[in-house]
Amino acid sequence: MNSPHFSTKERILGAAEELFARNGFAGASLRELTSTAKVNLAAVNYHFGSKDNLVNEVFRRRLDELSAQRLEALQQVLSRPSHTLEDILAAFIHPALLLSLDKSGGSTFVRVLARAYAEHNERLRKFLSENYGHVLKEFANAFGAQLPHLDKEELYWRIDIIAGALTYAMADFGVIKRRASMSEKIHRERAAEHLIRFAAAGLRAE
Amino acid sequence: MNSPHFSTKERILGAAEELFARNGFAGASLRELTSTAKVNLAAVNYHFGSKDNLVNEVFRRRLDELSAQRLEALQQVLSRPSHTLEDILAAFIHPALLLSLDKSGGSTFVRVLARAYAEHNERLRKFLSENYGHVLKEFANAFGAQLPHLDKEELYWRIDIIAGALTYAMADFGVIKRRASMSEKIHRERAAEHLIRFAAAGLRAE
DNA sequence: ATACAATTCAAACGCCCGTTTGGTTCCTTC
DNA sequence: GAAGGAACCAAACGGGCGTTTGAATTGTAT
Hints:
By secondary structure, chain A is mostly helical. Chain A has nine helices and no strands. Chain A has helices at about 10-25, 30-35, 45-50, 50-80, 85-100, 105-120, 120-145, 150-170, 185-205. The first copy, chain A, binds a DNA duplex through helix 3.
C-alpha cells in the first residue's frame, strides 16, 4: 500500500484510514499520519484544508461506492414482483459485507466506521446524515411498504439499530481472537446471515 | 451529580465517566476533567497514578458489580432443574440492561464501554480480559452444556459477538434521534428482548 | 526558454497535553 | 496542642499537537 505511484492525496487517505482505525480520530496525529504516508506535514492542510475535513473525505471515498451499491441492489430487489423483507435487508447488508472483505483497505474502513458510531461526534453525524441520509430513507420506504402497520419513527429507529449491529459485526470487535484456521471471509458471511435473520425478526416484531 | 459530599476520588471517577463517554479516552483531557470534577489538576495523578490507570478504575467501579450480578443470575438459572438457552442469555443481558437504566451514571458508562470496544486498545483489552474474562468463561461453560455439538472456539466467538451487539444496543448509537415521547426504559427493554431472541437463534445455528 | 501555477518543504507559531514538584492546608492520633 | 501523615494546590516541565508561513521545487502551458 502507499506505493510511490499513488498520488499524495491518495497516500494521505490511505494512511488516514489505517491510523484512524488503529488510534481513533483524536488519537491519530498528523505527524504520524504524514510520516506513514511519506508526505510533508503541511500536505494535509494543503490538500484537505484541515484534519476535520480529511476525516470527512476518508468517509466519502468509501461511502459513495457503498451507497451506490446499496441503492442499486435495492432497485433490483424492488423490480422483482414479489420480494421479501429479507431481500431488502440483503440489499443493505451484502454491499457492506463485500466492502469488509475488500483487500485494499475496505476491512480497515469498516473499523473506522465503527469508530464513528462510538464517537457520537455531532459534526461527523451531520456530514454523514447530509450526504448519506437519503440511502437510509430509500430503505426505510422499502421496509415501510412491507410493514404498513409500523410507526414511521419506530421504523427509522430500528433501521438505525440494524445499521449499528451490522457495523459492529463487520468490524471484528470483541475480546476473543478468531483462530487462524477459520477464514475471515466465511465468518463474516455467517455474521451477515445471522444479521439478516435477526433484523427481519426485529422489524416484524410487535 | 458530583455534589460536595462526594469524595475527590468519586468526583474524578464521575467526571471521567462523563467525559470519556463524550470525548473518548484520548479526547478527554485531564484539565477539562479536573475542572468538571472541581478538583486540582494534580489530583488525578495523586489518587490514580496516571490517566491510563484512571481509565482502568472507571471500568472497575462498574464492572465489578455488573460481573457479580451476572454470575449470581447465572447461578440461579443453573440451579433450576430445566433451564433454556434464553434463560442463560437473560442472566447475561438483564444486568447490563439494569446498568444502562441506572440514573447515576450507568447509562453513561455503557457508552464508555462501547468506546472501549471501538478502541481496540491492547492495554485495555488485557485489563478487561484479566479481570473479567472469567465471567465470559462461566457463561461459555453454561452455553456449552446446552450446545454440546458446538465447537468451543466458535462458541467463544459467538458469545463475543453477543457481548458486542449488547453493548451497541445499550449505548444509544445511531443517526436517528429517539422521539421524546418514547421512554428510554421501554426502548432498552425491547432491545434486550430482541437481543435474547437473536442471540439464542445465533447460538443454535448450524 | 519563459512565465506562471501547482505542489512540496523546513521551520516556526501558539496552544494544550500528562506529569512532576515543592510548599501549604487539613485531619488524625496521641 | 503538638506531631505527622494525607490531601490539596499553584506553578512549572518538556513535549506533541494542528495549523500557517514563505521560500524552494516541480509541472505545464506558451
